[in-house]
Specification:
By secondary structure, this protein is mainly α. The protein is built from four helices and two strands. It has a two-stranded antiparallel ribbon. A hairpin with a 2-residue loop joins β1 and β2. The longest helix is centred in the middle third of the chain and has 15 residues.
């Protein structure tokens, strides 16, 4: 894979529809995509993040759960 990928390439690499990728971006689960020629561009890190998000959804995690998973816990959250 190249360092910058279009949304179609990311969709193919992750098995997600482009609309799902845009949705996860709009929900703040992914950082805002870069732009090149007015089109979204993504890095390999985005593919990795989407793979985690997709697996979490399959396991039944809610969007809120996933947001917490990808954003991290506050420093005052005690470990279980």
């Amino acid at each position: 894979m190249t360092s910058m990928m279009g949304i179609g390439e990311v969709a193919k690499a992750t098995g997600l529809a482009p609309s799902a990728i845009r949705f996860y971006e709009s929900e703040g689960l992914l950082p805002a995509a870069g732009r090149s020629g007015g089109k979204r561009t993504f890095t390999k890190d985005t593919v990795d993040s989407l793979t985690v998000i997709r697996m979490a959804r399959v396991l039944g995690f809610t969007l809120g759960d996933i947001r917490l998973l990808v954003s991290g816990f506050s420093t005052d959250t005690p470990p279980n």
